[in-house]
Amino acid sequence: MALNTQRLDRFLAKACQVNRKQVRLMLAQNRVQVDGIVAQDADTIIDTFSKIMLDGQVLQANAAYYIMLNKPVGVVSATRDSQHKTVLDLLDYPFKNQLHIVGRLDLNSSGLVLLTNDSRWSERLTLPEQKVAKRYLVTLENKLHQAYISAFANGMYFAFEDLTTKPAKLTIVTDYQAEVELIEGRYHQIKRMFGRFRNQVIGLHRFAIGHLPLDSALALGQSRQLSAAEVTAIFGHKKRTVID
C-alpha cells in the first residue's frame, strides 16, 4: 500500500486552480510552507502527511495514526470478515476505516497488532533488510528440551516453499513455555517449526515488535495510539517526526 507522493507544484496547481507559472511566482514570493519551512523548489516531493500552507492558510494537514491493539484469540486480523469479529471491530476511533494492519496474527493467536494509515511506516516495518524482530510467548503441549534451541538457531528447511528459515532465537521459560524471536513471518512458521518436534502449539502470544513492547496496561481487546517516540523507537533509532 504505497504512500501517495507528488511534486509540490502539481499539488499547488490543483489545490489553488492556477497554472504552473502562477505556482512558480507563489514559491518565489516565499508564500508557501511545507512542514513549517518556506518552500521555493517546485520539484519538492510531498506526501499525504506533508503540512502545506499558503499565505498562512492550511491547504493540507492530514494526520498519521498509529494504533497498538492487544488482539484476543478468536478475532481475525482483517478489515472485514463474514464469519468472525475483526480487529477493526474492536476499535473505537473515528478514523479507523483509514487504517490497515501491520503484522497479522492468525485467529488462534493473541497479542500485539499494529494498525496505521501511514503505508511508508508499515512498509518499512516489513522490509526484510530492516530485520525488525517479532517476539512471542509460545505454550506447548509437550515438554521442551535443549535441542529446540539449536534447531531454531540453525533454521529449518520447508520443502513446500523450498526454503530454509532464517535463524530464530528460542529461550526456554518453563517446561511448557518458550519465548521465540523471529525476523521473518512465514505461513504458520512457529507452529510448523515446533511441529518438527511433534509438539503442538496450544498458545501463541506476540508481546513485542522491534523495540516496541505490548503495553501491559492494555487488556485483551483494548487499544491505544502510539506516541511519537514509540513510532520512531520501534526501529531502534531515530526516525522522522510524526503528527500525533
Work out the radius of gyration: 23 Å
The percentage of residues in β strands lies in 25-35%
Helix fraction, binned, reads 10-25%
Q: Could you give a short account of the major beta sheet?
A: 9 strands, mixed
Sum up the overall morphology in one term: elongated
Provide a quick synopsis of the model.
This protein is 19% helix and 29% strand. With 244 residues, the protein is an alpha+beta fold. Residues 238-244 have low confidence and may be disordered.
Question: Could you describe the 3D structure shown?
Answer:
- By secondary structure, this protein is an alpha+beta fold.
- The protein is 19% helix and 29% strand.
- It has 6 helices and 17 strands.
- It is elongated, with a radius of gyration of 23 Å.
- The protein starts with a strand and ends in an 11-residue tail after the last helix.
- The model is unreliable at 238-244 (pLDDT under 50).
Topology at a glance:
Elements: E1 5-7, H1 8-16, H2 20-28, E2 32-34, E3 37-38, E4 45-47, E5 52-54, E6 57-60, E7 66-71, E8 100-102, E9 110-116, H3 119-126, E10 134-140, H4 147-154, E11 157-158, E12 163-164, E13 169-174, E14 177-182, H5 189-195, E15 201-209, E16 212-213, E17 223-225, H6 228-233
Parallel strand pairs: 9-15
Antiparallel strand pairs: 1-4, 2-3, 2-5, 5-6, 7-9, 7-17, 8-9, 10-14, 10-15, 11-12, 13-14, 15-16
Helix pairs in contact: 1-2
Main attributes of the structure:
244 residues; alpha+beta; 9-stranded mixed β-sheet; 4-stranded antiparallel β-sheet; 17 strands; 19% helix; disordered C terminus
